Amino acid sequence: MRIFTNNIDQRFKREIRRFLQQLISVNHFLQNNFNLCKPIYSAKPIKLAQAFNTSNMKIGLFLSVSLLLSALYSCAQPLNQKTAFSRQDSLRGTITPERAWWNVTQYNLHVTPNYNERSIKGTNDISFEVLNAGNRMQLDLQQPMQIDSVRWNNTTLPFERDGNVYYVTFPQSLQKGSTENLQLAFSGIPRAAKNAPWDGGWIWKRDEQNRPWMSVAVQGLGASAWFPNKDHQSDEPDSGSIFNITVPDTLIAVANGHFKGKKPGANGMETYQWQVVNPINNYNIIPYIGGYTNFSEVYQGEKGPLTCSYWVLDYNEAKAKEQFKQAAQTLKAFEHWFGPYPFYEDGFKLVESPHLGMEHQSAVAYGNKYQNGYLGRDLSGSGWGLKWDFIIVHEVGHEWFGNNITAKDIADMWVHEGFT
């Protein structure tokens, strides 16, 4: 289990790692003996630091089982549907020799979607550190998307495809310790989500005013469903990402991190730029494109003022201003139990999305239709479920567990869900 965090001390991180390993052992046992993915809810919250430091093993065991059982309700996107595994699955899930020698430090991504054609084109400049000498690199991009060109040091590099994997060959082994930049151009018609966020891909919808409304949800499926990257959760870009999104000037593009500005382009197009400075899961790098309006507040948190920005379809602004009062309350509760919000440097956003919700780091997807409960329903049957907005609480909780603390292997994505 790899821990990505700036805000948890080393002793607490060791306790979390030991605790998660215990959970994984229980999960492996249950996977071999029970039918998972049954809706089960459990347990009032216990402050994690207290649970980890207690000598009462019964409390520790109770918390372990409770977290595990709550995880069973949330089956990762398409992964729970798997009945057989292919060589392509192995290439995706394994640290191959062509992956092991380099470490991603930043993605600089530019994408232009074409709503009418359901296609995208773009570039991704990958900055990386050479951990050990190597000259053959694995990149991931799922069919039917394609890489059009690869350049390095003003040189066009040869590449070959093997299903959802590309291999790029450098003219010589790169020197250990060097920092490099690879420029990729890509294009195609990405997989369209059939039932986002559970069946992932690009989302091409229209809002109530018949305007294009686009986004992406690829947890489990992987960000390589739409842009080329090193699609393994163990390697987040250390310096985050820069994301440029070019859209018609009648729409607004929102993404992770802070807004850096927009530039006018030809033919009525504009490019919006957003930047994340913290490490980020690939599947969390997401565009939201639509008829958005914005309002904001400053939450006085445990690390000082935190900019909270809310992007909603313009005709839902009044409803959002009322419902999103729960956002600051949720942040306050989670900071009390789990410590400071992990991404003060990148701000906090809720973004209305054309699907139910997802924990996109610093730009949480919200699609609960401004209702308490789960789409207005109390799944607990206790009456308490209608006192708060399930999607705000659940998805914001992933900022701590899922985004700040990330399972290295997607086989253990249930850990993210168990804590939320």
**Radius of gyration over C-alpha positions, nearest whole angstrom:** 21 Å
What is the approximate shape? globular
Roughly how many Å apart are the termini? 18 Å
Mean pLDDT: 86
Strand order of the largest sheet: 5-4-8-2-1-11-14-13
Largest sheet: 8 strands, mixed
Helix content: 10-25%
Order of secondary-structure elements: HHHHHEEEEEEEEEEEEEEEEEHHEEEHH
Notes on the protein architecture:
The chain has 420 residues and is of the alpha+beta class. 22% of the residues lie in helices and 32% in strands. The protein contains 9 helices and 20 strands. The protein has helices spanning 10-33, 48-53, 57-72, 87-93, 97-100, 317-323, 325-338, 390-397, 414-418, and strands at residues 102-114, 119-130, 134-140, 146-152, 155-156, 159-162, 165-174, 179-188, 201-206, 212-217, 241-248, 252-254, 258-264, 269-276, 288-290, 292-301, 304-313, 348-352, 357-358, 364-366. The strands form 4 sheets. It has an 8-stranded mixed β-sheet with strand order 5-4-8-2-1-11-14-13. Residues 1-8 and 29-76 have low confidence and may be disordered.
